[in-house]
Design brief:
Blueprint lengths: L2 H10 L26 E11 L12 H15 L4 E12 L3 H10 L24 E6 L6 E3 L4 E5 L14 H13 L23 H11 L6 E2 H10 L2 H13 L15
Parallel strand pairs: 1-2, 1-3, 3-5
Antiparallel strand pairs: 1-6, 4-5
Helix pairs in contact: 2-4, 6-7
């Protein structure tokens, strides 16, 4: 269409409508928002122990957990979401008899995913935030089982993709937490929600969905609200909240252009 024709149509009010921004394809997010736009979600990490059932016995250390969560946050910080480590709980898996029976009854010798709900220790379930349970090995790298918890295996393996993360466990953890934030699987192999790859990308629509869901999770709070709580809570809680705030990436102030003498 020539410029003259388009001008005539505009004058007559007959110009074709332009594509709305909402219909534009989502773009990959490449930088986190300002710190004051972050949403902080408490995360309780469970290292399940089961001497009699090696598959359920996590071999991760506390140092491993801190390393993994640091990488998880590097992924999710692009969405303005930060996972605050509430605690690391090393505890015995429960209902091992039911687990064994379920595994033995399975045609392929693998425990069905639903039975993993039963091995969660009851005394540590009540919590305003999300849970991640680490075990040594099962039939998938990880699974989000609805409600407020996911399982991830220590021995996760992924297909490498260009630009992907250098370690499987943080990616699997971040992926399952993505399901907890309302995201579905993707076909793009470099995306965080692709199945079985090292991809970590998130696009603008996924960020919007995840942030909306994040605010509905019990225990989550905006950056400013965590700041206020850190000033009013007791010493132990305040110290933890301040640590979470300090971990949120701060964007550097823009550097003013150099003015040269004329």
């Amino acid at each position: 269409m020539s410029l003259r024709v388009l001008t005539c149509l505009l004058v007559l009010g007959l110009a074709p409508s332009l594509q709305a921004d909402d219909d534009a394809p989502p773009r990959d997010v490449v930088a986190p928002p300002p710190a004051d736009e972050f949403i902080i979600i408490p995360l309780r990490v469970h290292l399940l122990q089961a001497d009699e059932v090696s598959d359920l016995h996590s071999v991760l250390t506390d140092e491993d957990v801190h390393r993994v969560l640091d990488k998880v946050n590097r992924i999710w910080n692009l969405a303005g979401v930060h996972w605050g480590l509430e605690s690391i709980v090393r505890e015995a898996a429960e209902d091992l008899d039911a687990f064994r029976e379920s595994r033995e009854a399975s045609p392929d010798g693998r425990a069905p995913l639903n039975v993993f709900r039963r091995i969660r220790p009851r005394k540590t379930r009540e919590f305003e935030g999300l849970h991640v349970y680490y075990i040594h090995k099962f039939s998938v790298n990880g699974v989000y089982l609805g409600s407020d918890f996911a399982f991830v295996q220590d021995t996760a393996k992924l297909r490498e993709v260009e630009g992907g993360i250098d370690e499987p466990i943080p990616r699997v953890t971040a992926h399952e937490l993505g399901h907890a934030l309302g995201l579905s699987h993707r076909q793009d192999r470099t995306n965080l929600l692709a199945s079985g790859t090292t991809g970590t990308k998130l696009n603008t629509r996924e960020v919007e969905t995840a942030r909306e869901k994040a605010l509905k999770i019990k225990g989550s709070a905006k950056f400013a609200d965590v700041q206020k709580a850190a000033q009013t809570e007791g010493p132990e809680v305040a110290k933890k909240l301040r640590a979470w705030l300090d971990q949120v990436p701060k964007q550097a102030a823009p550097v003013a252009p150099e003015v040269k003498d004329q």
